[in-house]
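ASSEMBLY PREDICTION REQUEST
Request ID: AP-0331
Submitted by: J.K., bench scientist
Number of chains: two
Total residues: 663
Priority: normal
Notes: Please return the full assembly, not individual chains.
Input sequences:
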Amino acid sequence: MAEVSVSNVSKSFGATRAVRDLSLTIADGEFVALLGPTGAGKTTTLRLVAGLEKPESGTITIGGLDATHAPPAARDVTFVFQQYSLYPHLTVFENLAFPLRSPTRRTPEEDIRRIVNEVATMLRIETKLGNKATQLSGGQMQRVAIGRALVRRPAIALMDEPLSSLDAKLRSDLRVELKRIQRELRTTILYVTHDQMEAMTMADRIGVLEGGRLVQVGTPREIYENPVSAYVASRLGQPAINLIPRAILGESAVPPETATIGIRTEHMRLLRRSKLRMTSQGDLAATVRRVEHLGDQNHLHLAIGEHEMVMLADPTLELQNGEIVDLSFVNPLFFNSEGARIS
Amino acid sequence: MNARSDSEGPARNVANMTPDRVARTVRGLSDKAIAWLFIGPTMLLLLAINLFPLIWTIQLSFTNYRANRPNAPILNIGLDHYRAILTDPDIWLRMQATAHFVFWTIALQTIIGFALAYLVDRKFRGHGFWTTLILVPMMLSPAVVGNFWTFLYQPQIGLFNYIVGFFANVPPGSFKMLGDVTLSPWAIIIVDTWMWTPYVMLICLAGLRSIPDYIYEAAEVDRASNWRQFISITLPMCMPFIMLAVLFRGIENFKMFDMVNLLTSGGPGSTTELASITLKRAAFEAWRTGYSSAFAIILFVAVFGLANIYVKTLNKVKAR
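STATUS: Completed
Returned structure:
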């Protein structure tokens, strides 16, 4: 386990610039998640750290040693792939023991047995050790793949969307377990995902990527509450943040260069119209389009003029489609015409 | 295409144009009946050209029938032919020659074919061109190959003799690949290997291409040496393909006739007389139709049995 740092690294594939001038330091024992849509350069960054790709410029150090041009085997890294990358004709035990049996390691056989059993117990696959890799379910296979990345106690474990091929229930189970194991072993993990839930729940810090650039790094809370741009703001939050043009608010008190206003779904307050209450200054009239009942909460789909918005609402709230309501906003985020945040 | 255009497209037109009488009959048929209606012609054809000759051959194998004497009385002689064939030491020599041919062609073709596939799989400059070039022998007719190699093996002017002579430092005319008792079995093995190794290579190449890159990447990160990657990833994941190639080549070579007949016609003596050549001689030179039918059935049962055992093993390997 060690600190890993990537500085000013760039990588292109032909005309596509996959990673541009990326710098990131992952502290010892830290869990960092890289978040971004497909094509943002997350996987390429991971493969650069693993040594499966070579950077055009910049340096990568692992545990204080320059590893920029070292082959994957010479770096103390492990990799979990998105696909089930097990050795299909080997048993679960042999798959887990595979990294320990490499000639550069020469781990004694009894140590191998002990370590594999420990990791298997931690991942709850200890009863499957004798099975062939192909006789496992998807969730079990991915547990084995994660186990294989942990048996060696690497300087850093690199994980490329390891849970994305699993169903929702398994994914949330494994998410919790992976975080527990990472805490127990104090493993340094760089984790790639496009699932904000995974990033929010597991990561100590999140790095948001846009077009090969790292646009913001911070704790999940910082990223959620203080996004540097409209792009970052829309990466986190489910349903996504409402981005509405300034014109909708009329001449209210907003910073002068504001082009877009971001309002999180939980930052809206709703007032029912009644004959007794006068409309107050700054309130907006909106039409209820649709109400989604999720049990613990309601998603209200509202329209302000042409503009659709989604709002979290009290599940007990009874509203009719077409009803007109008044809205007020709490903690709106202001963005300029480039999408950058104005504080 | 959506459901709407399906129901209002050409299918609807055809349905509208079908005469009422026909439409009523068809409407009365069950799905199963319609299915039989469609596969019926194919089934009939298969029965006529596959099953009927087989049954007729079995029937003939119990008689003394000779095709060159159609008017002679046909006597039922029971299992006499089978007994004669299975106790004939000459036949066992022919079977031995066949086994020798099959074993060595498979061994050489599998090893060379897999090695070639392994090399061609690496994306070097012009690998497409070389792959195509390697495939050429397989596309030639066996008749062409037979004549072609008769020239190559010619002791005085043959290229094969010249090259071997050059490297082994012996005069090219000092050995005859096709006329020598010890060399001729190898002569036909060399030609068959030359012709069919590309086929094995093609199947192995499909196997190699089916192994995803990330498995190798995982192994690389896991610090597995190239040799270990080959032993624990490439070979086992390719094994079902290799075994399939062996099956195809085995069945084909058990029945080998055309090329060997052109090269040596079974000679010198009967050193390269494979089972199918013996069969052809018994059937169309000696005109012992009943006898050769019995022999054909024995060969068929042997190949069928071996292939079945083999396929069972193959399935076991695949299931692993």
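REVIEWER COMMENTS: Residues 4-235 of chain A form a domain with the Rossmann fold fold (CATH 3.40.50.300).
SIGN-OFF: pending second reviewer
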